[in-house]
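User: Reviewer 2 asked us to show a designed sequence for the structure in our supplementary figure. I'm pasting the structure tokens here. Could you produce the per-position amino acids so we can include them in the response letter?
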């Protein structure tokens, strides 16, 4: 798989570090029960199809990217800077 970094251009996937789904995880309160912490730390969705994931260009410019991809076809549909995604740009 190849990802196109907005700053560096097209690169091999091995330059990037996958960080998981690009949604805000809501950290439980410190006094939340075991079930809340178990879900926060270990339970994630794993759907087939379109996903928005957070990737770090670790072996490149160090940018944080939001990658939209299809997990069924391995097609990368979009790559944007995470800071732009956060700002709503």
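Assistant: Here is a per-position design you can include in the supplement:
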């Amino acid at each position: 798989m190849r990802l196109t970094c907005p700053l560096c251009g097209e690169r091999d996937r091995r330059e990037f570090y996958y960080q998981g789904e690009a949604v805000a995880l809501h950290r439980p309160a410190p006094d939340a029960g075991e079930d809340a912490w178990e879900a926060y730390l270990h339970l994630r969705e794993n759907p087939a199809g379109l996903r928005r994931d957070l990737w770090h260009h670790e072996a490149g410019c160090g940018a944080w990217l939001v990658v939209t991809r299809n997990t069924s076809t391995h097609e990368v549909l979009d790559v944007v800077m995470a800071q732009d995604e956060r700002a709503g740009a």
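For the response letter, you might also mention the following. Residues 23 and 53 are 8 Å apart (CA to CA). The longest strand covers residues 50-56.
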